[in-house]
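Why should sequence recovery work at all? Because a backbone constrains its sequence more than one might expect. Tight turns favour small or flexible residues, buried strands favour hydrophobic ones, and helices have their own preferences. The token representation captures these environments compactly. In the example below, the structure is given first.
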């Protein structure tokens, strides 16, 4: 159990680092296109490829990336703490709203290229080449009766690497692809196999091209301190209610009212809107939610296993849903363990607008497999990630 927890923690840490690197690189390219990054002369010395802090903050506000200067400073400090930018002379360890010069580490070769970063950047470059190639190997394919978008056979990726001079031999290609899988860049479509030079299907875990919202990074660092309030019963969900327990009907679809006490807690992955015990609205954030512990009857008609979901010809259809949470969260309640499923959806929430429905089984969150996780680990994975959530779900045909 401890080993599983360490693996899940490593996955979340890698995901967070990946999001910071992608967002930082997207910002760097945009600033180059805007000519904000250029050579600056200061005290008879020229500093190439840098930017003025004040000008950058003006740009972030003008492009509606942040709402105010204080938030902009927090954002750039976050990038600084993750070695994306630095002061040109490394004189200031903090980012200041002043006429100081800063530079992206990729523009001066000081980015810390450890093994993990090198593999990540190699995977990102390969993804870009594959997604833009005329006859891309990333196509809709089937394995055991289940269709997977942008998938590729293992042998075909190694063929492509050889043809494009990326590797010297098939053995070298196999080692590279295994490293990509071990670092959560690619994965087997049903997570049952390591990488093999065979017809097994694989996919990229990360959509490197998705435009990252810079404010997601700040929500991510806020949520690092969040802890879910959980119950000892593995099958009892941590349920958030919109209405008071005294009301006759819950605004969450499928959640029946229960006579439970209100408990102050934290949960950003589930809540959308909550009310006090008097029924009056409460303004809440991801880090301060008013929650109710309750154990409503499961919406599932019967127990479903992971093997059943992935079996050929199973009566389920795969859907990929994108949810952009608002200031109050996502508006979804998950329950269960291996697999987790949607127990309730707030009708007016971002989740409902994205097409999330009860009885959907959650397979992946932001490219990470969650099929074999319990609802508590899944909730924490969502809360420690960006506000922009991509869910891959299996939905019953009936």
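From this structural description, the recovered sequence reads:
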């Amino acid at each position: 159990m401890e080993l599983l927890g360490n693996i899940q923690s490593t996955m979340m840490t890698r995901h967070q680092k990946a999001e910071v690197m992608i967002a930082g690189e997207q910002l760097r390219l945009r600033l180059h296109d805007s000519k904000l990054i250029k050579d600056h002369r200061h005290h008879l010395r020229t500093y190439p490829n840098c930017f003025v802090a004040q000008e950058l903050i003006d740009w972030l506000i003008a492009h509606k990336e942040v709402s105010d200067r204080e938030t902009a400073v927090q954002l750039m400090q976050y990038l600084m703490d993750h070695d994306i930018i630095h002061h040109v002379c490394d004189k200031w360890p903090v980012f200041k709203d002043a006429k100081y010069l800063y530079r992206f580490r990729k523009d001066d070769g000081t980015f810390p290229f450890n093994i993990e970063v090198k593999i990540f950047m190699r995977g990102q470059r390969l993804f870009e080449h594959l997604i833009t190639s005329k006859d891309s190997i990333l196509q809709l394919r089937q394995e055991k009766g289940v269709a997977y978008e942008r998938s590729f056979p293992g042998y075909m990726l190694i063929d492509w690497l050889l043809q494009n001079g990326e590797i010297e031999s098939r053995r070298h290609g196999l080692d590279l692809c295994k490293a990509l899988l071990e670092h959560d860049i690619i994965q087997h479509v049903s997570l049952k196999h390591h990488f093999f030079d065979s017809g097994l299907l694989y996919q990229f875990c990360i959509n490197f091209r998705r435009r990252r919202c810079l404010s997601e990074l700040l929500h991510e660092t806020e949520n690092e301190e969040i802890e879910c309030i959980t119950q000892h019963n593995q099958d009892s969900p941590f349920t958030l209610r919109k209405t008071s327990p005294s009301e006759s009907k819950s605004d969450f679809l499928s959640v029946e009212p229960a006579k439970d006490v209100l408990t102050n807690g934290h949960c950003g992955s589930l809540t959308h809107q909550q009310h006090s015990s008097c029924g009056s609205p409460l303004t809440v954030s991801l880090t301060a939610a008013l929650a109710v512990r309750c154990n409503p009857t499961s919406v599932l008609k019967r127990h479903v296993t992971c093997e059943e979901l992935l079996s050929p010809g199973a009566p389920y259809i795969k859907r990929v849903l994108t949810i952009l949470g608002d200031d109050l969260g996502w508006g979804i309640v998950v329950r269960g363990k291996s697999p987790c499923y949607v127990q309730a959806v707030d009708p007016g929430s971002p989740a409902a607008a994205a097409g999330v429905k009860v009885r959907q089984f959650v397979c992946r969150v932001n490219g990470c497999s969650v099929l074999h996780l319990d609802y508590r680990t899944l909730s924490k994975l969502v809360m420690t990630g960006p506000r922009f959530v991509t869910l891959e779900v299996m939905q019953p045909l009936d």
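A few observations help interpret the result. Residues 1-5, 222-252, 254-295 have pLDDT under 50 and may be disordered.
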